[in-house]
Structure formats: C-alpha cells, structure tokens
C-alpha cells in the first residue's frame, strides 16, 4: 500500500506541475496581448544595475547546477529530469526531503531500512512491512485516454439527450430567498430610507447580517450523521467481504493438488451450466449475453495456438510420446481441452436455422462452404465486421423465413443428411492426400480460387460502389422528403385543409398503385415474435381449446317455468316457419366461395381460332395449342380466411383507409411492430391518469415568458466537466475493483493449467 | 320491518375544503374506452388543421427608416428594445411592445455596416462606411443635449462588421482585416490577416468567449483565437459565405449563410465537412441568427423570405414571407425565444412569431396542458400521410415557387447525369461525393 500511496503522491505533484505550466502559459498569453507598454517598462527597469548583477549571479548558479547535472548524467544511466520546482513550501520541507533533484528520490525501502534498527518498532509491524516490500504488486494503470474520452462523450451525450430543457439555464430557485440576498441588491432611495440607513450605520448595526455562514450552509446540505454512519458501515462490510474473498481465493490458489483443481473445475462447470439453464428461463437477455461471451471465448480459442500441441512443451512431449504413456496422455488431454473449448454451442433454438443455412450454401462439393469461415451472426451485433453481411434486407429475411416454414420437417432432415454426406466427401480428399499429388491439386485449386476471388472482388467492389451511390441518393431523397411541401395554395380555413387533402387524393388516384402487399402493414394485433407455427395459419380446432367461462351474475334468477319453455319452443317454431326458405349458412358459404373464385387469377386464353389450322365452324382447338396459348397465372398467396370458415376477409385494398395509413416504415424504426407499438400507446387523459398524461406531454423545451436566455456560460461547461470527472472517478473505482476480481480469477486459472 | 336504503360515505365524495379539487372517479379500463388509436388520430388531425389555420406569424411591421435596413442589434438586457441601422447612416432605437421608434440618430455618412450592444446594455457601437467606429450611450439625451457619440475611432479602411466580447471590454471589427479593439484604446490591440482583401462578418463565440470566426471574400471562413497572434484555421468553400452565427448553447458549432443558397453548420473542430447542409432558399442567404435555446436558427435571404431551420435538419420547418417584403438583409431571434425580427430592403423591420401558431400571452393551465397534449399528438402521428401533408403545407409566392421548382429540376438533372456518367465509366473512376463534401474545397491550417 505504501508504494501505492507514494506513487499517488508523485502523480499528484506531476499534476500540480502541469497545472503550473498551464497557468504560466496562460499568463504569458495574456501578457502577449497587452505587450507593448510593458516592454517599455522593462527597458526602464534595466537601468537599475545592481538588480541586474544579482540576477546574473543567480543565473551563474543555475548554469553551474545544470552543468553538474549534465556531467552526472554522462556517467550513469540517463534518467528523466524532473522539472524545477519553485514552490517555497517544498523547498523548505520539514522532513528535510529534498525533492529538487531526482537523484535524491526517496524509495520506500530507504525509509524501512532505518526502521529495522530502531527497537521501538514492534515485530508485527516489521513483519507487515517486510511482506509489503516483497509483494511486487503494482497499481492498476488508469483507463486509457481514448476510453476516458469515450466515457466523457457518453456522459455528455446523455446530458444532451435529456428529456426536457428549461431555459433560462441558470434560473434561481423559486420560493422565498434568504433576507440578506434580497437586501444586498437594494438601495435606499427615498429620504426616509436614507435616514434610516444613516441611523443604522451610525449605530454600527449590521445592515445585512448573514443568517448562516457559508460553512454552515454547506453543513446543512451535507449528509446527516446517521446516514453517514450507515454508509460507513456498508462500506466497511463491503471491504471486509472483499478481503475475505481475496484471502479465500489466495488460499485456494496455493493448493497444488491437480486432482483438487480438476474436481473443482468440474464442479464449477456443472454449476455454471445449471446457472445458465436457469438464466435462460428467468432472464433470456442475460443468458444471451452469456452465450455471446462463450462464443467469444470459443473464437479466441480458435484463433490462438493454445492447446494445439504446437508449443515447446507439446513438442517435447511429442518426442517422448513414443515411449511414455503419460506424455501421450497429456497431449491427448490438451487436445481434448481444445476440442472442448472450440466445440460449438448447439442451442435448440438456432439449430434448425443453421442447418437450413448449411443446406442452402453447402451445395459445392469441392470447397468448404463459406459460412465455415464466417463469424456467428449473434456474436457481436455492434461490430459490423462480425456480422458477416453488412446490411440485410428485412423483407428478404422475412420471405426466406416463410419459405423455410413451408419445408416439411422430413425434407429438412433428409437434406441435412445429404449435406453432411457431401461435406464429409469434400473433407476426405483434403485430409487423406499426403504426397505430391496434394501439392499439385492444391496449386490448381489455389489458382482457381485466386481467379475466383479476383472476380468476386471486382463484383464486390462494384456492388459496394453501387450500394454507396444508392445510400447517398437515398440520403438525399430522405432529405427531400423531410422538407416542407410548398405550393401556391393558402390555407385559411378548415375547409381549405380538406381541399388540400382532396387534391392529394386525386393525385394519388393518378399515380400507379403500388402492390398491396407493401401497402398493408401487418395487422396490429399480431405480436412481435411471430412463431413459425403461427405462419402456417390458425388451425380451427386449436383456436377454441379453452372452454368458455360461464359468468355468474349475482342477479336474481329469472324464474323458469315449464310454460315458459313451451313458449320458447313455440317461438322457435314460429321463426323457423317464417324463414323457411332462408338457409343463412349455405348462403354464406356460397358467398365465400364466390369471393374466393373472384380472387383467383383467371386463365388467359390467347388462342386464335383458325390460326395455323383449318378454319370453319365447329372445330375444336388442338391440344397442343390449348396447352401453349392458355396462360395460367401463378396461384395467389393463400387467403387470410382460409382457415376461418365463418369469416370472409376481404383482401381488396380499401382506399379510404389507405389514405390514412403510413405507406413505408419511417426512418428510426426497424420493424413494423416497433412503429405500431408507438402508435398503439395512447397519450390522452381518457386512457391515462392525470400524472402520466402530464409526464408524457411534457414539452421538450420550456422557456419562461419574458426571460432573457443568456448563452451558456463557460462556468457551466466547467461544472459539467467536473461532474463528468466525478462520474469518471467513480467509474474508475468500479473498474479497478472489477479488474482486481478478474485478475484473481485469472491467476487461479493459470494455476490450474 | 327493515327498510333498505342506499348509503354512501360522505368521506368518499365530499371535499375537505373548498379549494380542493373535486375528485372525479374514473375507470381506466381499456374496454370502456375503445378505438384509442383512431380517436387520437382524429384529434391529431384536428390539431394539425387548427395549427395551420391559426398560423399567423406576422405580428407587426416597424416603419420609419428612410432607406433599407442594413443591420440590427438586440439589446442585451431589455427584451423590448431593438436597434436598427439603415443604408443612409441612420440608427433607430425601437420599443417593440409599443411598435414605435423611441430615438433616431444620424450615426454615419453612408451605410451603417454593423451594430452591437455592449454586454452591460448601457452603450452600443456602430461602424459605418465613413471608416469610423462610434460608441453611443443607450440613454436618450435629455432635452437640449446634442446627440453625440461617447467615443469615435477613425479607422484607415471601411469597416464591414462588428461584434462585442461577451464579458470583457473588447470588441472586434472586420473590413480589410479583422481587428480586436480594447474599448479604452484608439488603435487595435491585434489585427489578423490571411491573404484576404476583405471580410464581411465577424462573430465572437458566446461560450468560448476568446474565439472568433469571420467570413472572408476569398470564400473562406476563418477562425481566430483572441489570445493568439495568428488565425487558427480556415475552410475554403466553393462560394462565399455572407455571415455566420455561433450556437449559443453548443460551444463549437456555428452556422454560416452562403451565396450558393445554402447554410452550413460546422463543428469548429472538424472543418473538412459541414455537419449539415441546410437547403431550401432559392437565392443567396444573407444573414443567420440562432435562437437563444440553440435548437433552431433563422435565416434571411435575398429571395425575400425568412426561413427557420432546426439546427440538425437539412430543410426548413417554416418559411415566412409577405407580399411587400423585399430582399431580407438582416434577421434576429429575440432573446426570449418567442419572436423573430427581420429587416429588409424596403425600409421595414418586421416582427414575427417564432412559432407561427403559438398563442401569445399567458396561458391558463388547462390551455397549456391541452396545447402540450396536442403537440405530442402531432409528434406521434407525424408520419401519417394526411397529417404530414397538412403540417408540411406552406404557401409560397409564385415567383419563389417556380424558382424552387426549377432548382429542383436542375438538381435532379445534374444528379441523373452524374449517375449516368458513373454507370458508363470505369468503376471507381467517378467517385460518389456526398452533398456535404461537395461544397468544401479545402481546410487550411
């Protein structure tokens, strides 16, 4: 610890110095601004000879010192020269510690050395100091500059994105002000007031006597004693816990038994798996993160040469392996470790998709499919390089998903087997070839590949450029979209707005109608994560699985009489009689069939009778012709009401509604569901409580009426900076603790290995 | 016999005092309030329509100048005071609440080029074509007193612009060079040149108060530090910038108005590319001023319109014009963020509302809540085509409308041509240049 503190001191002094330097430069700068007259002044001063001589003496002294230093530097190793200090306080240190030259720098060991000789120091402290001396632990290096800046930017950005801004910025708090503050700005104007003031001052009465001193005010603002106590207790407890934990890990680390560690490891792994499974259930997001971490570890393992039997140790073992069973075993073990670590985590959710991907791409038997080299999609979504594809078309994705759904499971299974077989075939020759043939084939393959890659690169570059162009153009278009729509028409009344919309409608009529599939966003009721099963359509029998709940109404029962039931029967009979010829159900079904038929694409008959054949009446078209010239359109997508026998869903585009609908997904949203969820939440007081409404409808910028809004003051900037610094220091502390724990864990791991 | 009666506990419905709010029991069960989206959509639509109907931004016109208004200055302490200088050398002080001229003085011979109120609000400076800088008292001289400047500095060349330091007794002028003056001295304490023959505007940074920026006639924007002896940096653009304004809430950002009909917002630290290009004007942009909240700015153009841009959006959210308003030369945003003042060629100063449909004056709490709610509704539904159509609709005079149409066609043609050239040339030989990069030539350090 002592070392740590000494280092801290050093850094502090450095900081001081730098601040001094900065101050100096600032002074210089200000001097530069108004320099003309001062120079003249200096010239006047130079006439004074005695002062000049003194100065020279001082300079000589300094030069001599410098020379001596230079000579001493020649002999020994070169060290960084610390800048001179000019602070009186440091020069006259009461401990006679001269901090001027770096040669006299004091180490902890110097101080402790003298401790040994003094008998007063207890053995215990001596021991403690010795252990301290032996421990070579260094302080964690502070966060890198980039990182701190990033944090700063983050904090600043969060501030910038604050919910509500209230101008003017430095508003005084409303409410009564302390008396003395009110009084200070006040001046006596009337003669009476002046008289009173004069009297007061004559009596030596304090005109504005502060009720509270600044210190008192600060103490008022500070924490209460109890709070402080609680906090202290908390901190103490945390510290104790940490030290216990550290001691425990240290103890465990010292155990040399391999078996112990192995068992420990196994237990830990088991524990982890258990925890992970639990996490999957309870907190899927965290589980996913964990999964990502594991993936990352796997990748690192794959990248590194660890456990590949390629190290020095492994090579030595390989030599021994012929004769030594143990060596062989050890190598085997290492390979196993590698296998373990690099084994892909197969989760049930991703399984099918991955396999299907394999099927899609694994057609080429000669080369391994590309995705082998690709990173996992889910590894790190923030890093575009890890994503494989830079941008994905969401629409494409969706369609492909739908297609996937269509494949039956059996087919998938068959295909999977097929692809596996193929891959195995592809792998076998590469592995089995050992001789010159291999090289030949390799070179040939390489050449091929090169040519291929060249072509691909070209294509890629082209594509890239195109995409870039498209992006730029899109950007511009977007810009155009967000602008005003300026016309020659004025809006003066509400009728004018209606007219404007009418105009728009007529314009829309003229414009070609885009395909309805893109027009109609999916219905709002559909939840975000649509299941695969869902897409297959609702099965009627599955819908009404739950029995209807019978609502028990606590009302007086209507008395059921036998007569009444008879009446009912009669009534029914009457109705049946009245609507005898009315079969509603079959009518409905007919109607539905009709609608379906209307929706089906018609066969277009392009045959021309008599063309290429004999003419005349009563002739039949030849089969060949019928086949050739009758165009069958592709079957339309299944109707939405296919599985709903009692419903007809019209799939015609309703223009009166589409005028009010959003055609394309607006920019910041990524999915329809996101956008719809924002629209679905109501804001008004019909649906929300008063408080929520107030909170929701808070304006982003609030200004006070008649108040001048001054530009932001520099001090405010500095204040912000201070705040960020506080946050930073806290973050650093946290980071330190984390690093400590990590280090301990790492050490443990090393031990195990 | 027992008689059953309805019984209610008065504690549930009787107020304790008369000042308490009546408790209105409400059932928020969504089943009781169906169709929330469509109902709110209708409300939003109505709000937008009313917004457009009530959009009457023009408040008043201040006439009295006998020549075009060339510059204006906001008072630092008083919201109701405005100073304006005209092309005949006359300076007028206006009372905005009464819409009347309070004081008139003949400040210069020829144009009044620049005007600024000292930070304390007790005096103001003017520069003119007669090569003088004059300091005037803010107070009207008493009866019988002559209208005389407190201080007059005779310069060597014509001054074209003027700005005062935020806190110190230092001001800056520009003309053939940028000069920094101490108020107490008759010669500049520092002057900057960078191979340029004239500057059109100079502005102090309101936050980092030692920094300045100026627009030069060699199409560049030059940055200075008052404490240094040499300029810091300059960015050369394809066309000349007329004026610039710093964002009062974001220390490093400034916006410049350019001859090429656009405005450019720059980050001082990264000059090689503007952050945003603001397009919409159809003629040279002459002046720009930030709102004191730093969220928006207003620009005045030679095309006889005033436009308001959000600071981070490429197109204007509002366009103001009247039949009689000619080329707008100067524009200011009032210090309470509520009004915009524009001075134009035809001798008038116009007072506009910054939010066209905003109700002026004190709002009752319920009124304010309603307007806040409507605002949120409009925000929520602003992607919907009808609402968007109404909210974005603006009337433009015929000439400007056709001009903008023409510009659009030209731009589209240029883009098409570029695209075709790219399509038929070797890949990579015709690089894609984004709109932001197009207008910057170089950054000189």
UniProtKB/TrEMBL annotation, chain A:
- What is one term from the GO cellular component aspect held by the record? small-subunit processome
Show the ranges annotated as biased composition (Basic residues): 1-16, 622-631
- Biased composition range(s): Acidic residues: 33-59, 350-364, 469-485, 496-508
Name the keywords, alphabetized.
Nucleus, Phosphoprotein
- The answer to keyword Nucleus applying to this record is yes
* Composition bias, Polar residues: 130-145
User: Is Nucleus among this UniProt entry's keywords?
Assistant: yes
Q: Name one GO biological process term.
A: rRNA processing
Q: What segment(s) does the record annotate as region Disordered?
A: 1-67, 117-151, 343-538, 622-644
Task: Note the InterPro entries from the entry.
Answer: SSU_processome_Utp14 (IPR006709)
List, as start-end ranges, the regions of compositional bias called Pro residues. 512-525
Q: Where is the composition biased (Basic and acidic residues)?
A: 389-405, 441-468
- Where is this protein found? Nucleus, Nucleolus
What family is reported?
Belongs to the UTP14 family.
What is the recorded name of this protein? UTP14C small subunit processome component
Q: Which organism is it from?
A: Labrus bergylta
UniProtKB/TrEMBL annotation, chain B:
A Pfam entry, by short name: WD40
What are the record keywords, sorted? Nucleus, Repeat, Ribonucleoprotein, Ribosome biogenesis, rRNA processing, Ubl conjugation pathway, WD repeat
Q: Where are the WD repeats?
A: 62-104, 278-309, 321-362
Record GO cellular component, one term: Cul4-RING E3 ubiquitin ligase complex
* Residue ranges annotated for the Sof1-like protein domain, each copy included: 354-440
A single GO BP term for this record reads: maturation of SSU-rRNA from tricistronic rRNA transcript (SSU-rRNA, 5.8S rRNA, LSU-rRNA)
**Annotated metabolic or biological route of this protein:** Protein modification; protein ubiquitination
Q: Does the keyword Ribonucleoprotein apply?
A: yes
Q: In the record, what terms sit under GO molecular function?
A: ubiquitin-like ligase-substrate adaptor activity
Q: Where is the composition biased (Basic residues)?
A: 415-426
Record InterPro entries = Sof1, WD40/YVTN_repeat-like_dom_sf, WD40_repeat_CS, WD40_repeat_dom_sf, WD40_rpt, WD_repeat_DCAF13/WDSOF1
Q: Mind telling me which Gene3D superfamilies this protein's record contains?
A: YVTN repeat-like/Quinoprotein amine dehydrogenase (2.130.10.10)
Instruction: List the subcellular locations.
Output: Nucleus, Nucleolus
Residue ranges of region Disordered? 415-437
Q: Which CDD domains match?
A: WD40
As for family, the record states: Belongs to the WD repeat DCAF13/WDSOF1 family.
Q: What is this protein called?
A: DDB1- and CUL4-associated factor 13
Species in which this protein is naturally found: Labrus bergylta
